[in-house]
Amino acid sequence: MQARALRFEKIEGLGNDFIVVRAENEGAVSREQAWLLCDRRFGVGADGVLLVLPGRAGAVAHMRVINADGSVPEMCGNGLRCVALALASAGLATGSSGGGSFLVSTDAGLRECEVTGDGARAQVTVDMGPVRVGEALDLEAEGVALHLVRADAGNPHAVTFDAVPEEVFRRVGLAFATHAAFPRGANIELTRVGPTGLDVVVWERGVGLTLACGTGACAALAVACAEGRAAYDTPTEVRLPGGALRITLRRSDGHALMEGPARRVFTGEVLVTG
User: Fold this and answer.
1) Is 38 marked active-site?
2) Phi-psi label, residue 188: left if phi above 0, alpha if psi -120 to 50, beta otherwise
3) What average pLDDT is seen over the chain?
4) Is 82 among the residues known to form the active site?
5) Residues 140 and 216 in one domain
């Protein structure tokens, strides 16, 4: 099978790192190729591949996400910030000479992005759309019981405020993320409320524990607001292992406005087969 060269950018948002590829169609990187590219020993190494495709419905581009295991989620908040940086720094976004507001389409719908910064590092604000809080669940897996609340941030989440040690969460995260209660799987957020914001650890569906998860941070804040643990319409610091996001949840429409960094680590070219 003949090999071909694939150009990419490695971009990270709070340590949630991605291989960003500009392409004309979804076939540019297959699920199997993404799995190989994301391998941290035999590939480039990343939490996922982001395909930047021609835009839909008036957007400047469409983002398709492929997780490190080859699965395809509906949405990725940190990934969207990385794509926004790639578009703005390449001059492909409207009004983007180092900044500007523009639309990116995703499998979860249109998202408005605004980039402030230079070509290598920027602060990116994204209107993540509405985050819907659902039912509460009491589940058990591998001998651990958790009280969880469903949330939909364009992809499925379940948030817990239970006082579970992080080392236990590391052990049981996969069992809850793949629990029968979640037919499509779910991202699980272990959340603690502090005096100055939230502390969140996320087990990401299709990836595992990551340093940061944008949609997970939004889901955690939405559930916290719904339960009176945090305030609507107030910029809130959501701290993840890789750093902090600043998120405001609007009471009027449930939209989460997320602000956080994105940084280009390097660019390169890799051989792929198929």
Assistant:
1) no
2) beta
3) 95
4) no
5) yes
